[in-house]
Amino acid sequence: MFAATSLGTTPKQSDTLTINMLASEIPSVKNSASAVLYDPEGDGAAAKTDLIFVPSSLFNAVFTQYDAQGQPTQGQTHGWVHHHRFLSHLRHIHLDGTATAAATDDEDHAYSVVVGHRTGPLDITQPTTVVAHLVNIEGVECLSWPVTQGYVAMSSLYSWDYSCLPPKSLNVADAFAQLGTSLNVLRPGLTQDDETALQAAGAVGARLHSRLNDGFSMVRYRVQTGEVSSAFFRSPLTPNTVSFPTTEQPQWPATSTTGQKLQILDQQLNLMDLTYSAAWNLGKTLALADQTFAVALSRVRTQILDVAMKMAQEAVVKTWAADLGIPSPYRTREDVVGSIADTIKKVGKLPGSKLLQQDPSGMVHRWFRPEHPKLDLTYKGSEVDPVIDQYLAGAAALIASTTDDDGSSQTPPAPYNEFNVPYSPDWAVVLKWVMDQYFLVNVPSHYLISDASHLPTESLRFFNIDPAWVWAMVDGGLSLANHLDRDDDRLRDAIKGAINTYLKTQIPGLGYVPPVPTYGFFVRSALVTKFPDMIVDLKGTDKQDPNRPPEILRHQILGQDTLFGLLRAAPASPDFCSFLLREPPHQQYFAAATDITTQSIEMAYQRVYTDPTANDPDRQKTIPYIATRGSPPQNRGANYIWGTTSTSRDVRILNVENYASDVQTQLLNTFKSNPNWYTAPYASAALMGIELNEPCWQLEVQLPYADPPATGNASTASHTESTTTTSGQQRPDILLPLPPKRQHPPRKKAVFPSQPQIACAPHPSFTDRTRATSLPRRHPAPHTRVPRLGPSTPLPAPAPPLSDTTPSGPPQFTYMLYPVGSASAGLSQIPMLPNSAKQDLVFSIVLTPGTEQDFLLTSLSFTVPLGPPRPLVAQGSDYRFSGGGAAMLSNMRFVVVAQFDLGGRTLTLTVRPRSVSGSWPASRIDELSFLLSGVVVQTYDVATSVDVPVVARYEPDRAFPGDLFVELVPPPPPVPPVPPS
């Protein structure tokens, strides 16, 4: 077929059996007619399309015009496509309650719908893969009729494959009914054998049975000493409400530093419960993995500490000054400005008040200032430590507040609630992370479902959320960046208090506090795979609180067949009436009939109304259509065509024209007594879209029961109603636990230390005093004159330049170079070993005592000459020393780097400080010795002296050269062996 095209004789087909080829080559395909319209000028020579080649017998049957009895009409001259006007329409769909489709800003969700009027195979006995194509029929009416070639080329616009199920397979209605019968809480499903075995184990079995019913699982656990044991673990999703000790009870710590304090020993089974310890460590791991949160939390801690310490120190200083009866040394700008008027008044009264004359101490105590008692203003100081908690709480409230001005004088301002502008942008990041933990965002699935038996396939499970589990996880995340407290993290407690304030404060304009999930559900079913946007809805009652409507806080697909949802509270009266699972309108499918076989078909026409106020008591009652092959109902025609002959099943298409006409006629006949209910003059694509649409099935769980059912109650799924049950529990507390108020000893009042008393006469009267006369001089003062400098007066000589030996010169180092183990000689000598043996050389650098100066050392470099063969170093390369390497011996504050020069003539060894500033004070250096390993020393016939230049560099940009002379000496003669005695 394709020999005349560029595809050759073996074209490659896609997974859906299409062939991609040039549109210009379609007429060249042998034994094939083309329904593809191609314009060389408009489409271009490079235009390609995906083609399917339909057998001409099937093509002729699909595009034949049929009469009301399902027989081909006479005189057809071209392909018939007029009936496709009933098979496409546009829908505007309401998508609230779906997992992903509604997560857009556009509220108008419009979908184009194209319905195929051909059904799948009817005689299969096992699932069969079927390929579907959306084809372009624009050129069908242009083909001569009937098509006589073997195949017809059609352009495939979109294609997919699916599994066609045999008759009596599980359908949507049965799947919804199965979900209703599987309703239970999230706990392991114990078989009867399991129950019997646990009962036979006595008290231990009863305790283990209780733990399993509480949602616990057994996990592998390694204790700190290394032994492998077993332990209990439970996810945050529990089958019942968790009763947990409060923070006033000593066994439940509000904060933890490692999570180990949250382990609980089951004293009856001698097994450790790792639930809350694992939650704490998970929270810390998630926090460490979130770099943005970790940095923001560190900054928030710093902000709270700075504000709290400032307020605490100010309060402590003022209290200390009040105790001593002196003015406070800590005064703000506002305090100084406010006291200027009073200060001026007091200074103005001093001349007339005669305070100095009335002071009995006189002049002695006029300028005397007693020594003040010492004041410790550090974080752990005796003055700040007892009062810092309240200021940390106030600072956290300030950092967690908003900058929006709501016109109130609230102090501190209202908390940031994600609807206003935050005081600190970092706090917005921290709050978002904490709230994500409340919603179990990013919590791994194996933490949510600790054992696969908790959530079997085709099941619906409800659960409570353990608040203590969430507390532990949040506490673990907030434990980062603690650099102050070892046992009691006060900053973390302050942050928790600010979060609790946010959770307790109503959001302005909404009338309710931030919602937090405390209940939820899992749906694991093939329905989730088939309908990823399955609608979850909650029906309220007339008695529900208008400020707390039933709401789904999280609705997400966790796996291919698993739907996860979180609710604000447990479904219970009077808030909730029922819980609904419903097919999404945009993912529903279309069906030709309610039942179809190789010999019969049954249809159920839905009642359609053009009057939205129609009150039809039989609205759910359908209009039946039943036909057998070859015998359509009288006066209603054939709605389905099985095949081209009386026994074949090769066509399997709807007779759309007769189907639409029959639906229109039956609706008008049904509503004869109420003609205003349906007034459409003719059938339309909208009418056929409704009739071909499969009923919208839903599962309704009516609430509540007093206790959760043991195995779930049977329910019936239908497109009207289904009934199952669950339990409602009281909503637990969601606030983070805080430690009890810390107790401190009573504060001691500050007093002046005792001062020695000095006896002194009273201050003399100013009016009785006279100025003292100076004593007469026996010898007059000499007359001196400073000589004037003339042009011939020589100027003083300039000071000589500083030298290395002057006290202000650079530090002096003593350099030596010798092999390892030869330091005792005190000489820089290196033996020249034969056979290129490698040696480890010690560069000894010792600061000469008494030469330390205020110099900042930036580098100390040694330039070692190299002999042949020299390494090849390319331009711009960073060729490093390839031997054993250079390493510091003891002073780890410095690092040594070995690097060749460009020509490979020298090796430069540079000692640099490990400092951000790039320098280090020379006064704090004792020695800088390092080791160079794996050195091959060049050999000479006689002893040779080598000069190793040394340069010491100091800030700012000062260099002082030096030299290290090394003598290369022949190796010592071998020691003769000692003869045996």
Number of helices: 17
CATH structural architecture of the domain at 813-969: Sandwich
Shape, principal axes of CA atoms: extended
Structural class by sheet pairing and helices: alpha+beta
From the 3D structure, determine the CATH topology of the domain at 813-969: Immunoglobulin-like
Query: What's the count of strands?
Result: 36
N- to C-terminal separation?
A: 106 Å
CATH class type of the domain at 813-969: Mainly Beta
Mean residue pLDDT = 82
Biased composition (Basic residues): 741-750, 776-786
Biased composition (Low complexity): 715-727
Region (Disordered): 611-630, 708-807
Describe this structure in words.
Residues 715-727 have a biased composition (Low complexity). The chain is α+β, with helices and mostly antiparallel strands and 981 residues long. Among the domains are: 19-165, no CATH class; 813-969, Immunoglobulin-like (Sandwich), CATH 2.60.40. Strands 27, 29, 31, 32, 33, 35 and 36 form a 7-stranded mixed beta sheet that branches. Helix 4 packs across helix 5. It is extended, with a radius of gyration of 47 Å. The N and C termini lie far apart (106 Å). The model is unreliable at 705-732, 789-793, 795-806 and 873-880 (pLDDT under 50).
